[in-house]
């Protein structure tokens, strides 16, 4: 486990600014030089707001029923909240962040989930990223969620662990599977380190909340290893698709 420090955050932020000064990226939204997503485009992007489920933070349907919680058989997390709606520009930014090494975006994403975190009163002891399998890490070279989770933890001055939660094997893409298949697909895929999480209140950081199956399976693994409670923050959430 690492103890985090606000000064490290300042140093990382300064380093990024320096790097982008010499190698200015272009904004995915308006094309202006200086950032992968400029402050104006980020400010204009749709946030998750209005009537949301108390438990998972998803926008409620017209019938006030949560499309996510009503589908999960058993819910293992206490609360989840998301910053952006997973639409248009944010969808593209997360895709680039995940697959095209636009890691500079981790600062913006961490700031956004930090703002959401400040609106909640969650008693958090430890921050962990949603893990990827070893095969996936070798193939991609990085876990984008680690970048956001670590930057967030430094910002929020919370302890962070990259190993508290692990993904033991590679799983199929979830997008074409129904809820029962998703659960089977992820069954036993995650495992938490008892020594790191036991008795603690854990915050899991992920990029997108879609059906909630991944977040729920992470929470299940953490509780199985003795975690007292599990909260989640994601950069974005799908509004309608579950
Ligand atoms: Zn822009
Ligand atoms: Zn819900």
Keywords:
242 residues; alpha/beta; Rossmann fold; four-stranded parallel β-sheet; two-stranded antiparallel ribbon; 9 helices; 39% helix; globular; binds zinc ion
Structurally, the number of domains stands at: 1
Number of distinct beta strands = 6
Relative helix content? 25-40%
| Secondary-structure class | alpha/beta
The CATH level-2 architecture is identified as 3-Layer(aba) Sandwich
Which consecutive residue ranges, at least 5 long each, have pLDDT under 50? none
Q: Strand sequence of the main sheet, in spatial order?
A: 1-6-5-2
**In sequence order, what are the helices and strands, one letter per element?**
HHEHHEHHEHEHEHE
Rg, alpha carbons? 17 Å
General form: globular
Major sheet characteristics:
4 strands, parallel
| CATH-defined fold name | Rossmann fold
Describe the structure.
The protein has a single domain, classed as Rossmann fold (3-Layer(aba) Sandwich). Helix 4 (about 105-120) crosses helix 6 (about 145-155). A 4-stranded parallel sheet has the order 1-6-5-2. A two-stranded antiparallel ribbon has the order 3-4. It contains 9 helices and 6 strands. The model has no long low-confidence stretch (mean pLDDT about 90). The protein is of the alpha/beta class. The longest helix has 17 residues, at about 5-20. It has helices spanning about 5-20, 40-45, 90-100, 105-120, 135-140, 145-155, 180-185, 195, 215-225; strands at about 80-85, 125-130, 165, 190, 200-210, 230-235. The structure holds zinc ion (ZN) (2 copies). One zinc ion binds next to loops.
